[in-house]
Amino acid sequence: MFTGIVEELGEVVRLTEGAEDSAVIAVRGPLVTSDARHGDSISVNGCCLTVIDNVDGVFTADVMGETLRRTSLAALREGSNVNLERAAALGSRLGGHLVQGHVDGVARIIAREPADQWEVVRFSLPSELARYVVEKGSITVDGVSLTVMEVGEDSFAIGMIPATSKLTVLGSKAVGDPVNLEVDVIAKYVEKMLGSRNV
């Protein structure tokens, strides 16, 4: 479980194709690897990955074919920057919202509109996720916990403050770039519970 508060901008050292539609990713991240052990979870652009090795500030993780198909990780290349966050510890502050690291879909940036103190960024919204996205609700974009500012029929917008732009990959992404989305898991559970009621 994560909070959507990015701890560090990491760098992809290599992404190696593996057997049976899989890959191994190696990421440099001195902060998140400082206490990482085999089996720990680290969020990479919003994808929960399991550490299999950690040497000199670089951790490696296996990436299944399912993850490659359902996220934007397959688009990463050597030198790509990525958002990194270690799993939340019990008793720590919840600065963002409850994030599982289970990507629900991939969207694209469709507009960036600079303002005086922030930037409005608009993303496409996959139709199968639209019912979970509400104005003033939470959404995770590339592992960043954000508040939805506006929802359209097939898009949504967030207001990005300078700190988010500077400290995450969202600041350097361009119109057309893919991003990973995770909707609020509470909404999905509520939908399932209400859908199973006999009314």
UniProtKB/TrEMBL annotation:
<dbReference type="Pfam" id="PF00677">
    <property type="entry name" value="Lum_binding"/>
</dbReference>
<protein>
    <recommendedName>
        <fullName>Riboflavin synthase</fullName>
        <ecNumber>2.5.1.9</ecNumber>
    </recommendedName>
</protein>
<keyword id="KW-0677">Repeat</keyword>
<feature type="domain" description="Lumazine-binding">
    <location>
        <begin position="98"/>
        <end position="194"/>
    </location>
</feature>
<comment type="function">
    <text>Catalyzes the dismutation of two molecules of 6,7-dimethyl-8-ribityllumazine, resulting in the formation of riboflavin and 5-amino-6-(D-ribitylamino)uracil.</text>
</comment>
<keyword id="KW-0686">Riboflavin biosynthesis</keyword>
<feature type="repeat" description="Lumazine-binding">
    <location>
        <begin position="98"/>
        <end position="194"/>
    </location>
</feature>
<dbReference type="InterPro" id="IPR017938">
    <property type="entry name" value="Riboflavin_synthase-like_b-brl"/>
</dbReference>
<dbReference type="InterPro" id="IPR001783">
    <property type="entry name" value="Lumazine-bd"/>
</dbReference>
<comment type="pathway">
    <text>Cofactor biosynthesis; riboflavin biosynthesis; riboflavin from 2-hydroxy-3-oxobutyl phosphate and 5-amino-6-(D-ribitylamino)uracil: step 2/2.</text>
</comment>
<dbReference type="InterPro" id="IPR023366">
    <property type="entry name" value="ATP_synth_asu-like_sf"/>
</dbReference>
<feature type="domain" description="Lumazine-binding">
    <location>
        <begin position="1"/>
        <end position="97"/>
    </location>
</feature>
<feature type="repeat" description="Lumazine-binding">
    <location>
        <begin position="1"/>
        <end position="97"/>
    </location>
</feature>
<keyword id="KW-0808">Transferase</keyword>
<dbReference type="InterPro" id="IPR026017">
    <property type="entry name" value="Lumazine-bd_dom"/>
</dbReference>
<dbReference type="GO" id="GO:0004746">
    <property type="term" value="F:riboflavin synthase activity"/>
</dbReference>
